[in-house]
């Protein structure tokens, strides 16, 4: 490396300030000096000309002046240096290294975040979902952007680019709820970066939800009674009592998979755990989902079948003796629907049908609210009440299927038989309560 020295209007010898050099096979000028005993060699990206040499010399002179004054900041003088170098010299300067948003690339920060903060997420399910969202959707789009470049508009463009990658909806835009879920790990990274570097900047997530197109809510299927019987007849025999227990209680597969035999005490089933994607949850989806279900004769019949056929401590198991798996059960359910030749429905339809059937045969909506484990009573009125009107013809069959002990409060001294009820009692709607 060839050294260039010039005259300085300073008393300090040039060699103590630094030198201007040009590397072999390069036409660019380099600065070469020592700072805190460490040699620093950096390209100026300027061609080797007399005019540029004077500019670089002025630059070196200013560095020396600021070093003597104690105001020189390595990170500001060399913004292209690595993060490690900036942090190292900033510490020697007695300062705290805090890069600005335009100096930090999202991909570089996320790489460190994945090593340090990401492992602290305790839930395997959240760990898997976050990693998939980050590696397959977020990083490919934002990797080379700085945090300064990530604006609300850029974030909206990102959400608009998201498409389904598999299944029947492949190539179609993701739903609003799916987009929001993908933004959860993105927001976590953004907030951690702002906290670590103490940035006070406008969040690109502000008001983003107002820009996302609303997804039309799908009306959940409510099963007609004769369709239900046809479906059960076509379902694999092992799963029949499981499906029936679902529609008799309003439970979903993950809740049923969490039931231990010890949770059945006396006349009640205690729901306090769930089993989701191979992971046992220590609590339910919400505090309201933790509930007790009274065991009617119809429910007892199915419980006895489930208990007697397995040696597992868990109540609901597969033919192999393992705990019920929601994904596998969904496939079995779909096969049963196809063989029955009825309208498409999912296992979640059993929960909605339980609610609609209950309202049809006159159950107190406030009691249903507790059985469903909802956080809001309004959910019962607004969602399930709308489904009742078309089920009047099935009411008597549903009543006998559920049993008198489901309808009549156990402490009632004078239960009113179903056959004595008026037809009007079956026409339940949200406006009725």
- Per DSSP, the total helix count is 19
- In total, the number of strands is 9
Please indicate the count of domains.
Answer: 3
In N-to-C order, the SSE pattern is: EHEEEHHHHHHHHHHHEEEEEHHHHHHH
* CATH level 3 topology of the largest domain: hpI Integrase, Chain A
Share of residues in helices: 40-55%
Structural class: alpha+beta
CATH class of the largest domain: Mainly Alpha
Tell me the Rg in angstroms: 34 Å
Query: Main beta sheet: strand number and arrangement?
Result: 4 strands, antiparallel
Q: How confident is the prediction overall: mean pLDDT?
A: 82
Distance between termini? Answer: 89 Å
Family: Belongs to the 'phage' integrase family.
Domain Tyr recombinase: 211-400
Keywords: DNA recombination, DNA-binding
Protein name: DUF3596 domain-containing protein
Describe the protein:
With 433 residues, the protein is of the alpha+beta class. It has 3 domains: 96 residues, no CATH class; 106 residues, Orthogonal Bundle (DNA polymerase, domain 1); 208 residues, Orthogonal Bundle (hpI Integrase, Chain A). Strands 1-2-3-4 form a 4-stranded antiparallel sheet. A 3-stranded antiparallel sheet has the order 5-6-9, with no helix packed on it. The chain is elongated, with a radius of gyration of 34 Å. The C terminus is likely disordered. InterPro entries: DNA_brk_join_enz, Integrase-like_cat_sf, Integrase_catalytic, Integrase_recombinase_N, Min27-like_integrase_DNA_bind, Tyrosine_recombinase_XerCD. Keywords: DNA recombination, DNA-binding. Belongs to the 'phage' integrase family.
């Amino acid at each position: 490396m060839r050294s260039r020295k010039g005259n300085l209007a300073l008393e300090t010898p040039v060699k103590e300030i630094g030198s201007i050099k040009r590397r072999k096979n390069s036409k660019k000028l380099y600065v070469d000096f020592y700072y805190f005993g460490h040699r620093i060699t950096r390209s100026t990206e300027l061609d080797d000309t007399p005019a540029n040499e004077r500019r670089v010399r002025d630059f070196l002179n200013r560095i020396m002046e600021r070093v003597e004054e104690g105001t020189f900041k390595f990170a500001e003088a060399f913004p292209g240096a690595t993060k490690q170098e900036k942090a190292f010299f900033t510490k020697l300067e007695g300062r705290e290294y805090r890069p600005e948003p335009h100096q930090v690339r999202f991909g570089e920060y996320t790489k460190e975040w994945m090593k340090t903060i990401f492992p602290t997420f305790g839930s395997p399910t959240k760990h898997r979902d976050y990693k998939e969202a980050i590696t397959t959707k977020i990083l490919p789009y934002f990797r080379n952007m700085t945090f300064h470049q990530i604006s609300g508009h850029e974030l909206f463009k990102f959400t608009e680019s998201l498409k389904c990658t598999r299944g029947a909806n492949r190539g179609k835009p993701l739903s609003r709820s799916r987009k929001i879920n993908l933004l959860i790990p993105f927001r976590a990274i953004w907030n951690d970066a702002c906290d670590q570097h103490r940035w006070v900047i406008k969040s690109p997530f502000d008001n983003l939800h107002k820009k996302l197109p609303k997804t039309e809510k799908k009306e959940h299927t409510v099963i007609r009674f004769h369709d239900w019987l046809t479906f059960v007849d076509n379902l694999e025999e092992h799963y029949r009592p499981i499906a029936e227990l679902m529609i008799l209680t309003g439970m979903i597969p993950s809740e049923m998979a969490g039931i231990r035999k010890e949770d059945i005490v006396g006349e009640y089933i205690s729901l306090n755990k769930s089993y989701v994607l191979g992971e046992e949850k220590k609590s339910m989806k919400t505090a309201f989902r933790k509930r007790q279900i009274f065991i009617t004769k119809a429910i007892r019949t199915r419980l006895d079948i489930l208990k007697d056929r397995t040696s597992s401590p868990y109540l609901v198991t597969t033919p192999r003796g393992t705990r019920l798996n929601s994904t596998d059960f969904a496939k079995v359910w779909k096969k049963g629907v196809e063989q029955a030749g009825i309208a498409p429905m999912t296992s979640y339809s059993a929960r909605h049908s339980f609610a609609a059937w209950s309202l049809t045969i006159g159950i107190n909506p406030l009691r249903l609210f507790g059985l469903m484990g909802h956080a809001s009573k309004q959910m019962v009125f607004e969602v399930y009440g709308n489904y009742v009107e078309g089920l009047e013809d099935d009411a008597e069959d549903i009543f006998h299927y559920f049993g008198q002990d489901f309808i009549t409060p156990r402490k009632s001294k004078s239960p009113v038989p179903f056959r004595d009820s008026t037809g009007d009692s079956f026409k339940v709607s949200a406006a009725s309560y």
